[in-house]
Amino acid sequence: MSSREIAAGEAIGVGQGRSSCPELPLNRVAQSVAILAKFRYTMVIRRWHMLKQLIPREYNFFESFDQATKHAVNAAKLLLKLTEHYEDADPIARELNSVEHACDDVAHHTMEQLNKTFITALDREDIHVMILRIDDVVDLTNAAANRMAFFGIQKPTQHSVNLAKQVVRGCEKLAEAVHGMRSAKNYEQVMQDCITVHEVENAADDILHAALAELFATEKNAIEVIKWKDIYETMEKITDRLEDVANVLQGVIVKMS
Description:
By secondary structure, the protein is mainly α. The protein is built from eight helices and no strands. The longest helix has 35 residues, at 222-256.
């Protein structure tokens, strides 16, 4: 076969769509693309997990406030129960002591999370004051119960029962106010609850003054005077701490409005 015939044959082959180049391995290309895509996806996921470790996690401090006020309500009810059923003072005081420890745990955990959280829903100072003052409420409630249980008093006075009732009322209203802080639409009701807490503190002041006046006028035993003065003043301080938390809540609402 001559060179002309060979050239003509190649020209005919090209014209009919046949190529002298080998076909591309499309299946291998697809596999390579899939492997590359999987690799990139894996790298993105790894980088995201690394970023998550660096970004501070958001903590719901309202949950801590709810837990703490729940302990405060339980402690207040136990104090009232102690004044109304003084024959069971010792086991009630021990139960209240357990509630106080549980509230301490909530306060400590909240402080730890506050130190770890970069951005908070409320000002850090407000969170700090609120959780500590709620914890103070439970601490003072426990202290009042312990004084009544271990001071060796004959029986609770009507003034101590009335103070305990005010403490229960104040703790319940504070719990409602704290829970309402989750949404701005509840702010008006929160303000009303805070006003009720202020009224509780004023009522407790009046009871304290009447109790001390009667104590000094009628009690001749100096030791009994010291005991009951300490008990009355400790119970009244509980309402002072409730008012402190209410003041913080009102300040937060002013900032948010």
